[in-house]
């Protein structure tokens, strides 16, 4: 069936705006609002048996996997191994039969991820896939499937598939943590409450569209852009940089904020916008001191935080987007949205083909 742009100029913008809805749909499929607990569809293996999780994905989906690594290790206390599809098999890591391998893919067809799945299956791992296309090859070949209910994603640059992947991964983390005895009812209620607030917060964040469009003017003039974040904001920095590269063709790099002093700081001057993803969480003060170093070197900081973060920063960034305060657990889901909007507006200013960027494909079925 033909899918329209719903009054938006591009599919990408339409898909960004669909996020409050599709995040809610994806969450409601796994969340019981009365008991306030997460219930996954029945799986052909017991979560309490999982001793290690191997996460494999490509592109934007690999950044969802990276957020999940932080969550699964810190909340469920299960060790995680993570790789991109194209490296995993050739690395030939030792794999334990009976271990859990988790594949994340919007299309369910990406050749490198699919090859990794077949490799893991052959090694006797249990293969669980998170896909957006329920009838895809990965879904068919996996032992179990969790679906993101993002609906068809047309724009080549992934947006709503990414945030709904994070929602499924957050639910999986909670279910795994509970099964492993790492989460009591209160803990689960707190994390679930954070999750249930995501659709409303996502809708609030879309109201920053105009502010981000204004900031995009500055970013569009840059040759290089740096994205910084710590903890679960680090994969969002990587995703922000990827989005910008994909659709605006501006060189962008995502870096762990604490690693900046080991290299990228040498590039900083007034021509390099530095986009900082910094929700006020337990790591905030560390990120703030990295931002102070950038500002001291004349760097043009675009600061994405909440009002508390802006208060605590201690220096004045070139631009500041004061986002709503959110539970740190769900912050990576929500902070993905402003970086999508920023990349989108930069691309529009540059006049690129936003939905069909040059040299890129929606689904890469060759290795
Ligand atoms: C391509 C797309 C990306 C996507 C990646 C992985 O590069 O352009 O948007 O993130 O493939 O795709 P998958 O369908 O496996 O998530």
UniProtKB/TrEMBL annotation:
The active site is at residue 362. Catalyzes the first step in hexosamine metabolism, converting fructose-6P into glucosamine-6P using glutamine as a nitrogen source. Homodimer. It is found in: Cytoplasm. The keyword Cytoplasm applies. Keywords: Aminotransferase, Cytoplasm, Glutamine amidotransferase, Repeat, Transferase. It is an enzyme of class 2 (transferase). It catalyses: D-fructose 6-phosphate + L-glutamine = D-glucosamine 6-phosphate + L-glutamate. This is Glutamine--fructose-6-phosphate aminotransferase [isomerizing]. GO terms for molecular function: carbohydrate derivative binding; glutamine-fructose-6-phosphate transaminase (isomerizing) activity. Its EC number is 2.6.1.16. GO terms for biological process: amino sugar biosynthetic process; carbohydrate metabolic process; fructose 6-phosphate metabolic process; protein N-linked glycosylation; UDP-N-acetylglucosamine metabolic process. Its main location: cytoplasm. Transmembrane segments: none annotated. Residues 43-182, 215-357 form the SIS domain. GO terms for cellular component: cytosol. It comes from the Bacteria.
């Amino acid at each position: 069936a033909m899918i329209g742009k719903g009054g938006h100029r591009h599919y990408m913008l339409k898909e960004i705006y669909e996020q409050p809805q599709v995040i809610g749909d994806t969450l409601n499929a796994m969340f019981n609002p009365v008991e306030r607990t997460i219930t996954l569809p029945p799986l052909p293996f017991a979560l309490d048996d999982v001793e290690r999780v191997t996460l494999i994905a490509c592109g934007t989906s690999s950044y969802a996997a990276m957020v999940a690594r932080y969550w699964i290790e810190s909340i469920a206390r299960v060790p995680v191994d993570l790789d991109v599809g194209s490296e995993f098999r050739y690395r030939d890591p030792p794999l334990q039969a009976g271990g859990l391998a988790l594949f994340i893919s919007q299309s369910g067809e990406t050749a490198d991820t699919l090859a990794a799945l077949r490799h893991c299956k052959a090694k006797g791992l249990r293969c669980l896939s998170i896909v957006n296309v329920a009838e895809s090859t990965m879904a068919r070949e996996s032992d179990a499937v969790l679906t993101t209910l993002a609906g068809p994603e047309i724009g080549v640059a992934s947006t709503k598939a990414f945030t709904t992947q994070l929602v499924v991964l957050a639910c999986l983390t909670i279910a795994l943590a509970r099964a492993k005895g790492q989460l009591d009812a209160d803990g689960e209620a707190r994390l679930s409450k954070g999750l249930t607030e995501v659709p409303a917060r996502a809708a609030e964040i879309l109201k920053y569209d105009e502010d981000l469009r204004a900031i995009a003017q500055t970013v569009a003039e840059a040759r290089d852009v740096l994205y910084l974040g710590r903890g679960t904001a680090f994969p969002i920095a990587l995703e922000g940089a990827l989005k910008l590269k994909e659709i605006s063709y501006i060189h962008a790099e995502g870096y762990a904020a604490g690693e900046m002093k080991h290299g990228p700081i040498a590039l900083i001057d007034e021509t390099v916008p530095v986009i900082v993803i910094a929700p006020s969480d337990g790591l905030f003060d560390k990120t703030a001191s990295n931002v102070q170093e950038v500002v001291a070197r004349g760097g043009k900081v675009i600061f994405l935080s909440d009002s508390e973060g802006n208060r605590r920063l201690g220096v004045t960034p070139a631009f500041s987007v004061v986002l709503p305060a959110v539970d740190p657990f769900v912050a990576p889901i929500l902070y993905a949205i402003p970086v999508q909007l920023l990349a989108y507006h930069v691309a529009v200013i540059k006049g690129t083909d936003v939905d069909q960027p040059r040299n890129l494909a929606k689904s890469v079925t060759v290795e």
